[in-house]
Design a protein that fits this description.
This protein is an alpha/beta fold. 42% of the residues lie in helices and 16% in strands. The protein has twelve helices and ten strands. The structure holds pyridoxal-5'-phosphate.
Length: 334
């Protein structure tokens, strides 16, 4: 039951996530970085289909697809999309057909990047994979496929990139509420919640779920400059508030984005990412991924080094998953 966002209890939802996921202290990481107290929200451990953040969004997105009578779901992402993998798995579990539009948008990647990792898992689910060049417009490709299917008497349901529609984003409000409850139970008031932001749904959801307790939320951007990312997150927040008839004040929440950790580009390794992935594994046996959480955690490390938190503050990093992608970047960790 959600006291702050009662709409969550009214939406159609299927059960995918093994939750609540733990909120774990990382004392050796805190020591190594000289404080603050670092906690990790283990959304890599959402359980379904190798875990990660999309399970939470898909609970509502798939609920809506079933309600609409869909027989096919269509979504889009880069070749190693974690969202695509989790969508393909959720469709398989529900007996729906899945079509993945996969854009070959990350240059200079290994052979493994083009066939293994998430792509291997996609194949196992039986999803139909349509690869398109980097120049293709993924939304237009999906619309074309949906139209073909409709003409053939099928019922497609299109899920936007990253599952970041208003109901997808609301799935992450559940995580925000979980964090608020877990922090209260631990007796901490987090100075900040930090995580990797891409399509923006995780950020909007966390902002909405944490609004009632006033915890600041900062997305470390993995793909776009701050102004461009803001141009995605703000409209998604506005649409979520208006389409789901939330309290209009929520649309005025501050949106905090740090864009200093993109490195050479989306999906391209950076020295700070490599260091962050190594540090988490060495200190805590915690495996991050090279595309999202490694860059997100690099952002948190830098924010700690800049003295943004006091030693006795608590900060929460949301581990949003992505482990299958690590195996197709082994050359980044010599
Ligand atoms: C592992 C991982 N972390 C973070 C994100 C970013 O989440 P969002 O797209 O909701 O901003 C993604 C998105 O694909 C992801 O796969």
């Amino acid at each position: 039951m959600s006291a702050a966002l009662p709409v969550l209890d009214r939406l159609d939802r299927i059960k995918l996530v093994h939750g609540p996921t733990p909120l774990e202290a990382m004392p050796r990481l805190s020591d190594r970085l000289g404080g603050p107290r670092i906690y990790v929200k283990r959304d890599d451990a959402t359980g379904f289909a190798a875990g990660g953040n999309k399970g939470r969004k898909l609970e509502y997105l798939m609920g809506a697809a079933l309600k609409a009578g869909a027989d096919t779901v269509i979504t889009v992402g880069a070749l190693q999309t974690n969202h695509g993998r989790q969508t393909a798995a959720a469709a398989a579990k529900l007996g729906l057909k899945c079509i993945l539009v996969l854009t070959d948008s990350v240059a200079d990647r290994s052979k493994a990047y083009h066939s293994s990792g998430n792509l291997l898992l996609d194949r196992l689910t039986g999803a139909e994979m349509r690869r398109v060049p980097a120049t293709a417009n993924g939304d237009e490709e999906m619309a074309k496929i949906a139209e073909e299917l409709r003409r053939a008497g099928r019922v497609p349901y299109v899920i936007p990139s990253g599952g970041s529609s208003p109901i997808g984003a609301l799935g992450y409000a559940v995580a925000g509420e979980e964090i608020a409850q877990q922090a209260k139970a631990l007796g901490i008031r987090p100075a900040e919640v930090v995580f990797a932001t891409g399509s923006g749904g995780t950020q909007v959801g966390l902002m909405l779920g944490l609004a009632a307790v006033g915890t600041p939320v900062t997305g470390i951007c993995v793909s776009r400059r701050k102004d461009i990312q803001l141009g995605r997150v703000k409209p998604l927040l506005d649409r979520t508030v208006s389409e789901l008839q939330l309290d209009a004040k929520l649309a005025t929440l501050a949106i905090d984005i740090d864009d200093r950790f993109i490195g050479p580009g989306y999906g391209q390794p950076s020295p700070a990412m490599v260091e962050a992935v190594r540090l988490a594994a060495e200190c805590e046996g915690l495996f991050l991924d090279p595309v999202y959480t490694g860059k997100g955690f690099a952002g948190l490390i830098q924010r700690i080094c800049e003295g943004r938190y006091r030693k006795d503050d608590s900060v929460i990093f949301v581990h949003t998953g992505g482990l299958p992608g690590l195996f197709v970047y082994d050359e980044a960790f010599p």
